[in-house]
Amino acid sequence: MKKRLTSFFLAFAMFMTLFLPAYADTYSTDFMISSTSAQMKKGEVMQLTVYSGTSEAAQVTWSSSNPTVIQVDGTGTVRALGLGQAVITATSSSGVTATCTVEAKIPGIDVSQHRGTIDWKAVKQAGIEFAIIRTGYGNENWAKQTDTYFEANYSGAVANGIAVGAYHYSYATTPAMASQEADMVLSILKGRKLDYPVVFDVEDKVHYPLNADQMGQIVNAFCSKIQQAGYKTAVYSFVNFYNARLTNPLVTQYDTWIAHWGVSKPNFNRPYTMWQYAAQTVPGVPGLCDMNYSYFDYAGTASQQPVRPTDPSVFISNAPATYTFGDTKDYFYKVATADSAVPNVSSSDPNVAQVKYSHQSSDGYVFRVTHKGAGQATITTTSAVTGASTAFTVVGNALPKIQYFTDAGSSVSLQKGQTYSLKVMPTTLATNVKFLIGNSNVVKGGPATTTEGGWYYPITGLASGTTPIYAQVGDRAPVLVATVTVA
């Protein structure tokens, strides 16, 4: 029995040695590529090399999975012909393979006033090719909610040859609010040329309770108005919200800018043209800066700037047939015309709404309608050149008087260093409420949180003294909530 087993193992060992040379030839460490992944810009060239042990491998065949975007020749020279991804495969004469995943994309950043003063020359020298710049947020008070650094950031980026787009942080929970946010954006842009889209940024907690159909209506209200003004548009959000709420065809018809940090690829199974992948330091930008890749050459397409009509008979308003005021005080509309003179405007009832010229755009003129009271008024715009006219109706609402009550009464006492969560209950609930402190040296306020019938507003005593606390709805006059005394 022992002899039979010994003979069997010897025969098996001899049999296995027949396969050892073939196994050694396919062992990956004997056929290694110089890089397994690479990032390139469009037009760049790089060299890949395959090694067999410590020597450069001979008789290697090269191929690309997407040669229209990433091309490779017989020597391993890789060229980025366009934007996209490809797998470069090197194959030995015996069939062993090694691969390198190559992506060709455009590096960019997005910025707002929170980054402070930016050295755009240094940004350009760091290799950044595009910047998406915030116009502002919401639409309740255009003057206060316009990004204070938009003008400087736009001018600085353009002056240094960086392609520019814009984004607006939304608080819209209805299509009407989204449309008003679009009006605000267009009033800030003033017909400026953009290379990249105007992006609708929907990521705030006010959007969480809304379903996909509601978000579709909101996104479409904003983006369609931006497109009508002659700009490209896109939608931005983080990957989880996109997958859960931004699935309606009214959203997916627009380009996608997806945010997903700390991954090699977004967990997103739909097409996207831009990816925000991290926050990093960038020369010229104070603090950490949002980093992006663009997979579409927006700057290489037609410029985005509304064009003035050449036909003198064109006199078109972008206002709806009827506009109803909510908490917003002002509404802006535009008339596209070839006229060289500012059209005349009038209101049939100035007690309901007043109208005046705001500014000139690249394709016409923009006008401001100011809400004054309850009722209806007809806003008429008439050409000073041809006499052509266009009109629409505005509906004003009687603004209800709001009173505020607190769980501590109209007078609140605090000690220095003490924090109290003040429950504020209004007679009429509103969504766009902010709290103001008369003397911030005496009391500091924190972020308000909603509760049934009102809000909790945390206040902290800082120094001895007395200060009023106000609540303000939109751009209406602030209303006294309580007086706080710090001992």
Overall radius of gyration: 31 Å
Model regions low in confidence, pLDDT < 50 over at least 5 residues: 1-28
The overall strand count is 35
The first-to-last residue Cα distance is 101 Å
Largest sheet, if any?
Answer: 8 strands, mixed, barrel
Structural class by sheet pairing and helices: alpha+beta
Strand order of the largest sheet: 11-12-13-14-15-16-17-18
Q: Judging from the principal axes of the Cα atoms, what is the shape?
A: globular
Percent of residues in helices comes to 10-25%
What quaternary form is this?
Answer: single chain
What proportion strand?
35-45%
If you had to describe this structure to a student in words, what would you say it looks like?
The chain has 487 residues and is α+β, with helices and mostly antiparallel strands. It is built from 9 helices and 35 strands. Strand 25 and strand 26 (389-396) form a beta hairpin. It is globular. It starts with a helix and ends with a strand. 36% of the residues are buried.
